């Protein structure tokens, strides 16, 4: 019997519509409450070791089957966690304390997860991966099917409490029509990977698991985050029609980014690897506005060599030819610890020695990276822009700019993700060539809300008027100095918010490549004066919801098909 008709709301994280039979993602069964206490730690350690080796083998087998380099990297990283020696030692310790095998795995992982949470940033994001390893290992020990996404042979809409990155990364857009999760946030792995795969998705849909049953029909609008359980034929038809209109609106989206009256807004891609660059370069876009170089450094025992970095940066520049490539220097530190640059545990890593602060303490790492970028530029003469993360003061910006210019690199800039840099952007921009707004961190620091906390998602939306005020302050500094200001945070990929950003004075938007067509189409539906009016209304709004509603009221009705 189908569940009763119901409309739910969450956070739309990947635009598009979907309707079809629901498939529930299996929840982890948890520990075996009836298992005996451990009396032979050596034997039980071997048993757990065998289970974890099976999990590693399973993850690696899935990695080999995927055709996506990013999906393969996610699966391999999760497999690496499953083989972590520190975790194995923690499990053995629990077994020696008398825990049964599944309790030992559960308790050891929880201890490890708490450690990662305290580190914050990238490492805290690995907690979901770690829990995935825990759940798979416990199922292996209990002889139960692995939790997670069921075998899918016909098109379905997936519903889950949350999805591990290893699960999201292997979804097939041909059979997974949409994704709905009860937890998560707009910057979670699920949200980011769904956007990269182009699968309509909504997260933080409260109560969805209580409202559905296996086999229900469910409809999803991933733009506005609306979910319809057991939709009527009319509702399903309206969604299908909206999907057709959206496809028609996007069909003509090509060429440079610009408003209807010709104001240029460059549309760029966020990338993290050479494979990302080569894939993004095939899209109709104008380059890369954010190359996250830390992926070259993370998870290693030693820093990448000058030769290795030169090769990577050269290949990325070659992939884009004469199109722009904005490289962010190493963004690591307390929130993304490096084995070869460990400065010790910090009380509050999100506010600690990260980004440029780490580079000032380990100049050798930055000097090698900048020399590699100079070598790559010399080899390609590409349109290379280099920027530093986590800049807060004019002195920091000047210190970085002097290093970059000494090597003959053509453009030097800073990330504006700290409120201090936004408020003092005219002074900061006076010593560099450009700035790029990292809206994820800027929202986190402006609202004093951890970006990894799904329950704080309402505070972290870039529609918050306080966050828009910060963006306006940064753009005003750009206008005052005649310097270039772009956006490379998640806000850049929202077609509606793109209009506000353009109206505030943002000159480029960088995003997941699959979001470019919708943003380009949205810009071409509006002239700059309308974008400026939208921006004024949004900044002056009382609440985030009021800001978005005010912009929608001014938007061309065709835009709603793109959301």
UniProtKB/TrEMBL annotation:
EC category: transferase
Biological process annotations from GO: phosphoenolpyruvate-dependent sugar phosphotransferase system
Domain of life: Bacteria
Cofactor annotation: Mg(2+)
Stored InterPro entries: PEP-util_enz_mobile_dom, PEP-utilizing_PTS_enzyme, PEP_util_C, Phosphohistidine_dom_sf, PTS_EI, PTS_EI-like, PTS_EIN, PtsI_HPr-bd_sf
Catalysed reactions listed for this entry: L-histidyl-[protein] + phosphoenolpyruvate = N(pros)-phospho-L-histidyl-[protein] + pyruvate
Annotated active site: 189, 488
Keywords in alphabetical order: Cytoplasm, Kinase, Magnesium, Metal-binding, Phosphotransferase system, Pyruvate, Sugar transport, Transferase, Transport
Record-linked Gene3D superfamilies: Phosphoenolpyruvate-binding domains, Phosphohistidine domain, PtsI, HPr-binding domain
GO CC, one annotated term: cytoplasm
Residues that hold Mg(2+) according to the record: 417, 441
EC number: 2.7.3.9
Domain PEP-utilising enzyme mobile: 154-223
Residue ranges annotated for the Phosphotransferase system enzyme I N-terminal domain, each copy included: 9-126
Compartment list: Cytoplasm
Stretches assigned to the PEP-utilising enzyme C-terminal domain: 258-524
Annotated residues for binding of phosphoenolpyruvate: 292, 328, 440-441, 451
UniProt-recorded name of the protein: Phosphoenolpyruvate-protein phosphotransferase
Organism: Bifidobacterium aerophilum
The encoding gene: ptsP
């Amino acid at each position: 019997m189908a569940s009763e008709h119901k409309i739910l709301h969450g956070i739309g994280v990947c635009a598009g519509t979907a309707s079809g039979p629901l498939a529930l993602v299996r929840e982890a069964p948890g520990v075996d409450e009836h298992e005996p206490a451990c009396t032979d730690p050596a034997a039980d350690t071997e048993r757990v070791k065998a289970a974890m080796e099976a999990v590693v083998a399973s993850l690696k087998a899935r990695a080999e089957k995927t055709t996506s380099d990013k999906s393969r990297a996610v699966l391999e990283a999760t497999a690496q966690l499953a083989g972590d020696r520190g975790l194995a030692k923690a499990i053995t310790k629990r077994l020696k304390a008398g825990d049964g095998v599944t309790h030992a795995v559960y308790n050891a992982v929880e201890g490890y997860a708490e450690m990662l949470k305290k580190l914050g940033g990238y490492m805290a994001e690995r907690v979901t991966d770690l829990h995935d390893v825990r759940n798979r290992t416990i199922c292996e020990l209990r002889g139960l099917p692995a939790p997670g996404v069921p075998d899918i042979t016909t098109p379905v809409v997936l519903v889950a409490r949350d999805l591990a990155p290893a699960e999201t990364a292997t979804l097939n857009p041909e059979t997974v029509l949409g994704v709905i999760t009860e937890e998560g946030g707009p910057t979670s792995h699920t949200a980011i990977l769904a956007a990269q795969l182009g699968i309509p998705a909504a997260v933080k849909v409260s109560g969805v698991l209580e409202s559905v049953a296996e086999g229900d029909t469910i409809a999803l609008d991933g733009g506005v985050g609306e979910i319809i359980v057991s939709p009527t034929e009319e509702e399903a038809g309206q969604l299908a029609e909206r999907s057709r209109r959206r496809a028609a609106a996007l069909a003509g989206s090509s060429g440079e980014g610009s408003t209807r009256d010709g104001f240029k807004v460059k549309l760029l891609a966020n990338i993290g690897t050479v494979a990302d660059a080569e894939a993004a370069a095939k899209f109709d876009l104008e380059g890369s506005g954010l190359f996250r170089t830390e992926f070259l450094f993370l998870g290693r025992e030693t820093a990448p060599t000058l030769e290795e970095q030169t090769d990577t940066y050269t290949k990325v520049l070659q992939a884009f030819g004469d199109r722009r490539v904005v490289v962010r220097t190493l963004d690591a530190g307390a929130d993304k610890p490096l084995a070869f640059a460990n400065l010790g545990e910090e009380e509050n890593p999100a506010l600690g020695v990260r980004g440029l602060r780490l580079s000032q303490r380990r100049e050798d790492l930055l000097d090698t990276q900048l020399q590699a970028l100079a070598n790559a530029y010399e080899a390609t003469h590409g349109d290379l822009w280099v920027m530093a993360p986590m800049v807060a003061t004019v002195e920091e910006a000047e210190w970085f700019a002097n290093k970059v210019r000494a090597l003959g690199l053509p453009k030097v800039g800073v990330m504006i993700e700290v409120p201090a840099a936004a408020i003092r952007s005219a002074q900061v921009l006076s010593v560099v060539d450009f700035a790029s707004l990292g809206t994820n961190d800027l929202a986190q620091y402006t609202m004093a809300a951890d970006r990894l906390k799904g329950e704080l998602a309402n505070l972290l939306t870039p529609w918050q008027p306080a966050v828009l005020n910060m963006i306006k302050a940064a753009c005003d500094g750009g206008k005052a100095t005649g310097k270039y200001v772009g956006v490379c945070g998640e806000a850049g990929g929202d077609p509606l918010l793109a209009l506000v950003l353009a109206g505030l004075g943002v000159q480029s938007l960088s995003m997941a490549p699959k979001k470019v067509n919708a943003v380009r189409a949205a810009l071409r539906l509006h002239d700059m004066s309308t974008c400026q009016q939208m921006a004024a209304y949004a900044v002056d709004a009382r609440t985030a919801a009021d800001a978005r509603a005010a912009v929608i009221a001014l938007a061309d009705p065709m835009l709603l098909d793109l959301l």
